[in-house]
Write the structure tokens for this entry.
Amino acid sequence: MKGKFITFEGSEGCGKSTQSRLLCAYLRSKGCDVLYLREPGATKISEKVRSVLLDKKNDAMSVECEMLLYMAARAQIVAECIKPALEKGRIVICDRFLDSTITYQGYGLGMDISLIKSIGGFVTQGISPDLTILLDVPLKKGLKHRDGRQDRIEQRSLSYHGRVRRGYFKLAKAEPARIKIVKVQRDLHQTQENIRKLIDL
Ligand code: TMP
């Protein structure tokens, strides 16, 4: 693969989408060819899967179904977007990737992490990020905007989201060369500065 694959991860309310978009705009302003994606979603098929996953009405969804739907959406985005872009030498920035399934369905819901990694290897065709920016925000701060309109996953308990956040720390400890923790600052431009320092292009 000639390109560079950068992912953004973090628990709810960490500002991933804003920060990943700012980085994308910055790299484009420097003349880089960047493809910006989000997970689950980005392709027609994966966006449909996203709406099934996040719909609060789908409260009967089993944990097995949930995990496999995230993987199905990922299989499509990898085949349709990520792999072709990396082969062409483009930079791919993706808001969430396989680490989210390990933390949200693995650490959060208690699913077998080695099973998630093995299905993950299959759907990603062995593609893994060159760099993962893990944005960290205190749990209660991240969830303080919850107001009843949140989606099926966001609405889960504080203890669930705590397991997700601790899961991210475990992943970062296991793979320090790939996963870089960036503490979310009050000033979003300061956070962005700290992210840019990690980008070695
Ligand atoms: P988003 O809010 O970052 O767009 O992500 C949608 C939700 O889906 C968010 O609550 C995290 C959750 N999620 C998982 O539970 N497992 C996954 O594999 C992914 C990619 C997201």
Observations:
- Strands lie at 4-9, 34-38, 91-95, 131-136, 179-183.
- The chain has eight helices and five strands.
- The helical segments are 16-29, 44-54, 63-87, 98-107, 113-123, 139-143, 158-174, 188-196.
- The pocket of thymidine-5'-phosphate is lined by residues 38-40, 70, 96, 100-101, 104-105, 153-154 (CB under 6 Å).
